[in-house]
Amino acid sequence: MSLLCPLLLALALVAVPGAHGNCPVPADLKKSDGTRTCARLYEKSDPYYDNCCQGPVLSVEPGTDLPYLPSGWSNTASSLVVGQRCEITVWSLPGKHGKTRKFTAGTYPRLEEYRKGIFGDWSDSISALYCKCY
């Protein structure tokens, strides 16, 4: 019986869905040629983590400085993955104005879980960014 308990616990932990859902892990943010990607922004998030990090993707290279996001991307990102040893600084208004926040290496499947001031959150709120890697 004592051997069965750790085995059941291990199986239960494997069966629990991870908080990353469909999002890639930061170590997987690489191009096919092996070069790094600083971050990826995804248009779709969902109350269910398994449905996050889907839809159109904006890949950001190290050193990218975008005071104005490409057409169709301003205030649309709902999920974010930041590569290993990288960080992305985002602004709520174009031209690097408004509220700002730094996201370090990690997976952020639901940006609505990250506060932007008292009443807002970062889902559909990114209008400018700067991404760097170390």
Automatic annotation (TrEMBL):
GO biological process, one term: exocytosis
Membrane topology annotation: Peripheral membrane protein
GO CC term, one of those recorded: zymogen granule membrane
Disulfide bond in keyword set: yes
Keywords: Cytoplasmic vesicle, Disulfide bond, Exocytosis, Membrane, Signal
Stored InterPro entries: Syncollin
Compartments, record wording: Zymogen granule lumen; Zymogen granule membrane
Cleavable signal peptide: 1-21
Highest rank taxon of the organism: Eukaryota
UniProt xrefs under PANTHER family: SYNCOLLIN
Role played: Functions in exocytosis in pancreatic acinar cells regulating the fusion of zymogen granules with each other. May have a pore-forming activity on membranes and regulate exocytosis in other exocrine tissues.
Protein name per the record: Syncollin
